[in-house]
Amino acid sequence: MRDALPHYTCACGRSYVPDAARWRCDCGGPLDLAAVPFTWRPRSTEEGLWRYADALAVPSLGLTLGEGLTPLIRASPDGDPGLLLKVEYASPTGSFKDRGAVTLATVARLLGAERVVCDSSGNAGTAMAAYAARAGLRAEIFVPEGTSAKKVQQIAGHGAEVTVVPGSREDTATAAAERVERTGAFYASHVYNPFFHDGVKTYALEIFERLGTAPDTLVLPAGNGTLVIGAYLGFAALRDAGLVDRVPRVVAVQAERCAPVAAAYTAGAREVTAVRPGRTAAEGIAIAAPVRGPRVLEIVRDTGGTVVTVSEDEIAAAHAALASRGLWVEPTGAVAYAAVSGLGTAPGEVVVAPLCGSGLKASL
Ligand SMILES: Cc1ncc(COP(=O)(O)O)c(C=O)c1O
Ligand SMILES: [Zn+2]
Known about the structure:
single chain, alpha/beta, Rossmann fold, TrpB-like_PALP_sf, TrpB-like_PALP, Threonine synthase, Ser/Thr_deHydtase_PyrdxlP-BS
C-alpha cells in the first residue's frame, strides 16, 4: 500500500519517495505530489470522502468519520439562485479541514508512523486530533495563544496533547517543527504536507457532482491556502480528464488586518512578504507568512481571479447576515461570504463560497 503513494516533488526539481520523516525539500521549500491517475467514478458504497477514492492519490484504509458530502445550498431562499454556499461546518469536527485530515492520517498510517505532530490556528488541529484518535495514532497539537477555548477543549477531548505556544502563529509553527526534528514524529502539517491537499480536492469534486459542471467563480478564504490549492487541484483534475472545460476563477479572500497575499497581488509580485498582522476575528486565516503564498498567487492569476480583503466590520456584517438566515459560522467562516457582495458578479453567474467553520467553536 505504501508503494501506492506518489512521490513528493519540489519546484527545485528534487523528488522523494514519501517517508514518515520527510516534511519538506532539502532546499527548504514545500513539497507537492507527482501526478496521479484520476478516474471519475464516485462510489456510493464508500463512506466519507472515499466516495472519490478513484480520484485521489491516497489509497483508502477505510479510515473515516463521515467527512465530506456537505450540503450546497442557496445563500438565501429568495435571493440570487446563482449564489451557493457549501456548508463545510457540517463536517464531523466542524470545518473543511476534515477533508485533509483524513488523507493525512491515512498517509501517517501507511508510512508506519505512531505519533503525529501538527500546528494549527485551531481547526486543522481539531481535525488532526480527531482523525489521529480514529486511526489509533498519538497526536501532539501546537496552537497559538488566543486560540478559541472550544477548539483547545475539542483537541484535548480527542486525547491529543495540546501545547499552547506564546507569541505568533509563526512561533507555533517553529515549536511544532522543532518537536518533529527532536522526536522523529510524523509532521501532519496542513501547510507542508501535500497529501492534505489531496483530500481537500474533494471540495471541488462534490461541487462538480452536484452541479454537473464547474461554477463560474469560487470565493475562498486564504490563510495558508489549503482550500484554494485543494479546490484548484480538484477542478484542474476534472479539466484534464475532459469533464469540465475550465477551472473556475478563484477569488482568494484575506482579512484586511492580515493580508500578505493580497499585498503581493496588488504589487504584482510573485513572492509573498511577511506582514505584521493586526488582530482579526478571522483567526483561521491570520497567517502573516504563508509558506504556499506564491502558489495561491499563481492559482489566482492562472484562473483569471483576484485577491480581495474584507474589514472587521464586513466580517461582522456577513456573520450577522448569515445568522439571520439560520447559518451559524465562526468569524473565519463568514469571510468568503463577506467578499461576495463586493465582487460585482454578472447576472446568471454561478458563485460558490464555503461556510468553512462552525460558530459553535468560536464566535465574535
Ligand atoms: C474556518 C476556516 N476557514 C478557512 C481557513 C483557511 O485555511 P487555509 O489557512 O488553509 O487557507 C481555516 C484555517 O484554519 C479555517 O479554520
Ligand atoms: Zn526543493
